[in-house]
Amino acid sequence: MTTAAVSATPVEGLWTIDDVSAFLRVPTATLYQWRHRHIGPPAFKVGRHLRYDPAAVRAWLVAGEA
After folding, report:
1. 39 in a structural domain
2. Could you tell me if residue 5 is inside a domain?
3. Which of 1, 42, 57, 66 is deepest in the core (most CB within 10 A)?
4. Side-chain-facing half-sphere of 51: CA atoms under 13 Å
5. pTM of the model
6. 36-66: buried (b, 16+ CB within 10 Å) or exposed (e) per residue?
7. In sequence order, which residues have a C-beta less than 8 Å from that of residue 17 and are 6 or more positions away?
8. CB distance 23 to 57 below 8 Å
């Protein structure tokens, strides 16, 4: 039996849309609109929920795409 390799570095938890909304200080409706228009920070679905990688949100912000 083989096990999947686990990263030795700690992984920061994923953010919910409410977390990103609070971080960027924009309404959640704005994040949904951005996602629909493909202009917001990258998100992915876990089941039926949106989740964001905090590092990707910060990188998106720093890149000036906001």
Report:
1. yes
2. no
3. 57
4. 9
5. 0.77
6. eeeebbebeeeeeebbbbeeebeebeeeeee
7. 28, 31, 32, 43, 50, 52
8. yes
7 located within any domain: no
All residues at 6 or more sequence positions from 55 whose CB lies less than 8 Å from its CB, including other chains: 12
Domain count, the chain: 1
d(CA 41, CA 7): 24
**Structural domain contains residue 1:** no
Q: Given the structure tokens 């929920």, which residue do they identify? A: 49
Q: Which residues span the domain enclosing 42? A: 17-62
Contact 36, 10 (CB under 8 A): no
Q: What amino acid is encoded at 22 in this protein?
A: A
Task: Write out pLDDT tens, residues 21-49.
Answer: 999 999 999 999 999 999 999 999 999 99
- Please say whether the beta carbons of 59 and 17 come within 8 A: no
